[in-house]
Design a protein that fits this description.
Blueprint (H helix, E strand, L loop, with lengths): L3 H25 L2 H18 L5 H30 L1
């Protein structure tokens, strides 16, 4: 009959072997290759769409907001001049 310590060591070896085998399967699976190909296809599609980056969008939003403020100020000045 095996001692509890020997049984625990045997279970631990089996668990380590299973963990190593699962890791090998994941590393050797085509999932990474598929993901790489899908990313490349998506990047090509996005480039064809002529999209802007988040940074470019935020910069243009700030420029638009400033322009809108200036326009509103000019409209107020014109309205004041028309009343005079």
């Amino acid at each position: 009959m095996q001692k509890p310590g020997e049984i625990f060591e045997q279970i631990q070896r089996i668990a380590n072997d299973m963990q190593n085998k699962v890791g090998d399967v994941i590393r050797n699976s085509p999932v990474q290759e598929i993901e790489k190909n899908v990313r490349a296809m998506m990047n090509q599609g996005f480039q064809k769409m002529d999209l802007v980056t988040r940074e470019e969008f935020e910069l243009q939003s700030k420029v638009l907001a400033k322009t809108r403020e200036k326009l509103e100020a000019l409209e107020a000045k014109v309205a004041a001049l028309e009343k005079s």
